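Example (one chain per record):
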Amino acid sequence: MLRDDAYAFLQAGARIEAADMTLRMLRVALPAAESVTREDAEALALLQAVGGLQAYRRQVPLPPNARPVMRFLLYAREYPGSVAASVDTLLGALTSVDERARTAAPVLRLRRLTADLEFRSRETDGERDVGATLATVQLELARVDADIADRYFGKSVAPPLHVA
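Predicted structure:
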């Protein structure tokens, strides 16, 4: 396949979908942040479902409890299935196809999301409200999707921006 604009948009769509699915699985499979002291079967099952168990074990010295698994699937840029890696790939794809990427709404929104993920990954006191963090990132990805539809494909009907 040629590595042209069409490929970049296919890649962008795939990365939005991958990040959204990872966020949905995190929101459903992992318990609230207060109950992350034991080794959670849900966290282990989630890692196996996304194919990240071996990568997790190589990178994170902690047992697969809910909080370390959530942090790994959200912030580990080295793991291609993480939300942060998907956002980075999506940003690269859009930057490569847009001649005016510096002022493009989806690119600017993705740069803010990248900075926000980087900032949140450096928090050492733990996530105060994991559910809100996941919902916020998911909502931003939905907004990026709508921005992409508006900028590159005309005023097409975009999906609603609410998060289930």
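Caption: The mean pLDDT is 86.
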